[in-house]
C-alpha cells in the first residue's frame, strides 16, 4: 500500500511542485497519473523513489515511513527493489544484447547465476521477446526496446512498476501493445503506476485516473477519462 499524507514539495528556488497531496494506492491497482507539463508528475515519482524528500507530510509504502529511512546504508537501495522503473527513452545499454540488458539488473542484486538464466528467460517470454534475446537495441523497434526495458524493470519481481511516459516515443499501435503488456503485468499481481499524456490510451483502458494540476490532485476517479488540460 502506498500512502501520501499531506505531502508537499517545494524546490530550493521556491517552486511548489506538490501541494498537500493525499493519496492511497492499494496493492494490485493500475493507476494513470495525468496532467500537463509542470503539474508535478515527475516530482510525485521522485518522491516515491526517495530521490527527493517532501518538504512536509509523510509517505508510507507497505507501512514503511520513507522519511524515517536512513539515507546512508542499505535501507534505500533495499526499499527501491520494491520498485521497477520504465522511462520514455528506454535507457537500454546499447553495447549489450537483450539478454544481457535484462540479466544485468539481476547481477546488480547478486542473484545466483542459475537463477539469472531462468528468470531472464521467463520474463523475456512474458514480454514476448524470447526469440530476440541475442539482438542489440539498435536492431529492435521502439516497441520492442520498451518491452526489454519492462522486462528489465520486472526481472527482480518488484511489487510496484512505475512507468514515466512509457509510450511517449511510440506510434499508436506499439503504444497500445505496451499498454496491453502493462495490463497483463498488473493482472499477474504487480501494482502499476503510469505517468502519461496519452489521452486516447487512458480513455480506452478504463483504469483509475489521477489528474495533477499545478501540484494539486485535481481529480481521482475509477475507470476514469483523461481530463482536458484547461
Ligand atoms: P511534470 O512531471 O508534471 O512535468 P515536475 O514534477 O517535473 O512536473 O515539475 C513540477 C514543478 O516543479 C515545475 O514547476 C517544475 O519546473 C518544478 N521543478 C521540478 N524539478 C525541479 C527542480 N529540481 N528544481 C526546481 N524546480 C523544479
Ligand atoms: P519531464 O517533463 O519529462 O518530467 P522535465 O523537463 O520537467 O521532464 O524535467 C527534466 C529534469 O529537470 C527533471 O530531473 C526535473 O527535476 C528537472 N527540472 C525540471 N524543472 C526544473 C527547474 N525549474 N529547475 C531545475 N530543475 C528542473
> What is the end-to-end distance?
31 Å
Strand order of the largest sheet: 6-7-8-3-9-10
Query: Unreliable stretches, pLDDT < 50, 5 or more residues?
Result: none
For the largest beta-sheet, the strand count, sense and barrel status come to: 6 strands, mixed
The assigned CATH architecture is 3-Layer(aba) Sandwich
Small molecules in complex: adenosine-5'-diphosphate
InterPro entries: AAA+_ATPase, ABC_transporter-like_ATP-bd, ABC_transporter-like_CS, ABC_transpr_LolD-like, Cell_div_FtsE, P-loop_NTPase
GO biological process, one term: cell division
Membrane topology: Peripheral membrane protein
Subcellular location: Cell membrane
Question: How would you describe this structure in keywords?
Answer:
230 residues; alpha/beta; Rossmann fold; 10 strands
What's the quick description here?
This protein is 33% helix and 25% strand. The chain has helices at 41-48, 75-80, 98-108, 113-126, 142-154, 172-187, 199-205; strands at 2-10, 16-25, 30-34, 56-61, 64-65, 83-86, 160-164, 191-195, 208-213, 216-221.
Spell out the blueprint of helices and strands.
Blueprint: E1 2-10, E2 16-25, E3 30-34, H1 41-48, E4 56-61, E5 64-65, H2 75-80, E6 83-86, H3 98-108, H4 113-126, H5 142-154, E7 160-164, H6 172-187, E8 191-195, H7 199-205, E9 208-213, E10 216-221
Parallel strand pairs: 3-8, 3-9, 6-7, 7-8
Antiparallel strand pairs: 1-2, 1-4, 4-5, 9-10
Helix pairs in contact: 3-4, 3-5, 4-5, 5-6
Bound molecules: adenosine-5'-diphosphate (2 copies).
